[in-house]
């Protein structure tokens, strides 16, 4: 049974399941244009997910073969996973922001072994204990999801209208969750006349109830010291200022009052930074900081993969604190420790 919601004004969503994931589903949006339906995101690459997408499109009165184009909010496999299959079935173009296209290109060109070596070295540098790093060093042959994502054929240009016949959909660059994340602003009156400026497809940038993961932009080929949390907070303010009448996120459900959701998220990160700064009265590695941070469950109950994500999130917060001049690396420490200043 396909789960389809009609949001009015030629926009529907299809719930596409994400296997073994507490988020449950990705909301794939179907936007009617004069040249055929365009999808915003496609969902996880899995047979059951593909069936859900295909059935959902039939319930919308169209089909996979009819899809004219695919707009991707960011490269993550729960958003971009099925793009290749949709293109094969329909001849649709796929568009994405250049910064995420280069991640797709790198993922396609990198053998998993190189990635695991990079992650193992990085975890060691963060102060992770050897028993945590060891499985990463032997994980060589294991496949990981999204190992060969589809290479997009168009670039989403920030600030510009997408080439969609009969619609006004503008790309808003919102880096943070990924370097090339975009939100898409449908600059058309709300179909139910809700007050505000159009509707915003927010991807993972702005979600109800949950805060998106903000880690480092892990790239074995890039030595740039990025500040993803700083990028994210800036992008949040940009979205709040748009004051969309309704937000259509990629997970959970549509909601209104974007500015107050933005405020909640800004407050959340601000109080988290304050808490972390107080933890850094004694010098800590990023691993030690992650262990002491507050998560949705005790550290001992956090599974292996989620611990790696947690360390990345701790590092993103450390980057921010260092950039703000609230913390600094202790000279000569190895693995490097950070202390509040
Ligand atoms: Zn994501
Ligand atoms: Zn997602």
From TrEMBL:
Key word Lipid metabolism present: no
A Pfam family that the UniProt record links to this protein: Lactamase_B
Residue ranges occupied by any Metallo-beta-lactamase domain in the UniProt entry: 25-251
UniProt keyword list: Hydrolase
Claim: Hydrolase is one of the keywords in the record: yes
MF GO annotations: hydrolase activity
PANTHER family in alphabetical order: ENDORIBONUCLEASE LACTB2, METALLO-BETA-LACTAMASE SUPERFAMILY POTEIN
Identification of the protein by name: MBL fold metallo-hydrolase
Organism: Streptomyces liliifuscus
Species lineage: Bacteria, Bacillati, Actinomycetota, Actinomycetes, Kitasatosporales
